[in-house]
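Re-run with default settings, no changes from the original entry. Doing this only to confirm the output is reproducible before filing.
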Amino acid sequence: MKKLVAAVLSLVIFTTAYAAPDNQSGTDADKPNIIFVLTDDMSWGEMGCSGNKIIRTPNLDRLYEQSLRFRNFHVASYCAPTRAQLMSGRHEFFAGVTDTRYERDNLRDDITILPQYFKQAGYRTAMIGKWHLASVETGLTGKPLAPYKRGFDMALYVRNQVNRFNPFLSRNGTLEKFEGYCGDILFAEAMKWIENGDVEQPYFLYLATSIPHGPVAAPEEYLALYQDSGLTKKQAGYYAMVSNVDTNMGRLMQWLEKRQGKRKTILIFMTDNGHAISGYQGAGHNADGTLQPDGLYNAGLRGGKNQQWQGGTCVPFFLYWPGVADAARDNTTLASGMDILPTFCDIIGVKPDDPGLQGHSLLNDVLGKPTSVPKDRILYNHCGRWTYPAELESFKYNASVITDRYRLVWERKGKSNKDAERSLALYDYRSDPGEKQNVIDQHPEVAKRLQEAFEPWWEEAKRGMVNDLHQLKTGNLIGTKPKKNKDDALKKRKEKK
């Protein structure tokens, strides 16, 4: 097995032996296949191409050298909210997702989502891996939430993230037992699904790995890569999981090269948020985003998963399209996870029908044309980890406001998560990607403008966070359980006596 790992870790080179496509022709023959790979809890710091001297990611490094790289691509700083952006083209709060728990990760059931647009365009569709947009099978209005009932012909998805080896996966609602390591299984099943389909029909594959999200567990041959690296056991295990992703990306790329045909295949690699070892705000960051002494390499960025700085929200997005985007090219447009849906719709020739769409198409950026993203665009990043309605306002400023140059953030004054006191900070992340120099005194007018933009946005977003139907029944936010009142409980016990 070690020989196999070593072989696949060798560099994979894509070739472009055929001509560039006639874009936007509208014929089925010109519609490209699209493979969208999303990894979990991994970011810029986990690749050799970003300057990490320890980690081994030759295949991702090669993809980086042969693709269009969006260098200013922002997502939610954690998991389900990012996935909601990708599937809906909306900010996660406007797509029904405000957290990863308490059924607040349920994607709204009254909007058309990404795979449904692909079906309209005549594609066959599959999602493999981590869905995390439905804690239950049906939504509040009774419509289905499961991915195989919302546009995916086949959905093979992870039901929990504990079993990395020999896991049970759900295929269109039916559990199946698999042998092997989860990363290897997901990629193998993806290639099998492509192979078994009609070559005359274009396909869309959403491959969302459940690694390197914790718990840390990897095959021995990958752990051996970091045996003498000086890393802790947990750090080495995390890097081993990343290298497994890299190896499987290499296998996929080699496999695609061998079955190259007339129809072009777009390959996209992206991550869902900043890095974390343990699954929640890990990788050695303090609450103020600064790196702890034993923290992992972060490519000079501040913060990680569940945090509001560059290291939490700005993620890798590589796009390879033969004849169109197949050479190293950087793009600095202020882009977002909300832009995925309108971009894909633009590529496949379908017009989104959602009046609440908030994303912009990036197709012009892909084609090397002037961007269609407004220069004055503002992105709102928020980490909504409240549990009960009373806590909602106390989480209001767990946020940052992002323009194509600045980030306004409400920072905790201390390094602990228990520090509730916050202060405003403004960073010019273009010239200061590590966000070390607070320039709010130099640019008070910028800070004022962004703060004033945030207030009405929050009020509008907040209205959608408390669902009227559910609140009438329970008085709580979607999916939360009523908080027990200790005084009432004590009173009842006394009455019984």
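The longest strand covers residues 33-39. The chain has two domains: 30-367, 379-474.
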